[in-house]
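Q: Could you fold this chain for me?
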Amino acid sequence: MKKAIGSKINLILFGFLLLYSPLNFAQSKGFTIKGKIVGAKNGEKVYVRELNKMQYLDSAEVVNQKFILKGNIAEPTPAWLVYKNEYTKIQLENLPITFEAPTKYWLTKSRTFGGREQGFRNKLNVVEFPFHEIYEKGRDSLNNKLFSSPMHQADIVKRLNEKSEINQSKYVAFGKANPNSFLGLDILYRNRKTIGKPEMAELLKKMSPKIRNSSTGKTLALFVATELIKVGQDFFDFTANTINNQPFTLSSLKGQYIYLTFWESGCGPCRLENRLFAKEMNRIAGQLQIVSFSLDPVLKNWKEASNLDGIAWHNVSDLKGNDSPIKIKYDVQGIPHSFLIDKVGKIIKIFSGYSIKMVDELLTLVK
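A: Sure. Below is the predicted structure, expressed as structure tokens.
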């Protein structure tokens, strides 16, 4: 199951949930990142990747250990700077940004300056530094197989996950302490379910109109104000477009069992579920209707993943990504997140994550 930033470490694939919300703000000339990587070779590539949309905004080649990245964003937003196997998180704003790092250990050794939001990020980096140090050492041990036995390996994983849980609490506390920033807003949104509605309502009051009226701020307010779907309730009806830009309304399938699942192209477990359904479609046909709701905000990414996975069932989206009000109404935080709806329109089961036995379980439930 794909989880929010700061959640437990997945040793096979590090997944990152990513949430985007556009807002036009005064700065319009774009960002410029002037960086230096001490020891980097000419021709090596550096990338800036927006976290919420999971899109590369620019790339550059290193020349004499230096690089320049440029672009324009709709609002201050979290991003990665990526070089080879290294990355670090920054807060992008449409202004000049400076960066310097060695070729390794970017989480603890890199330095970024520029803008109010990066100032908040630098304060968070100080809070998270002890965990980042442990994480980088643990990553080296696991990647380079510097463990003496499977038991030793398991102990490293256990200690990393324990430290990750502690770091997560500090990360959320930082968001609560700094709600009047885009970084704080991002943290609160990613952890809205564990924070809860009453406390979130109070945190919203502490935000400036600029923060509160951003798309993420409005979506967070919708989360606080909306009664969320639960087992036993009627499904929440919606209309969205198919991948071929045709309108689709969920209630058009009423009278049949429906499996509604939320996914996106960058979610590994979601893609496994898609391929499982494609493989088992002969067994599924006639038993229930599958509706895959994509949280991809970019049509190209949605189409490419759908084609690769062989989706031949109801495939819809509002292309609002993680700001989708449909996603919020269905209380989707991690993906895949799915709902089995009976013939009269009641939610009879909610699923979180991927299971290789999902088709067997569904066919048992709809008999």
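A (continued): The chain has 13 helices and 15 strands.
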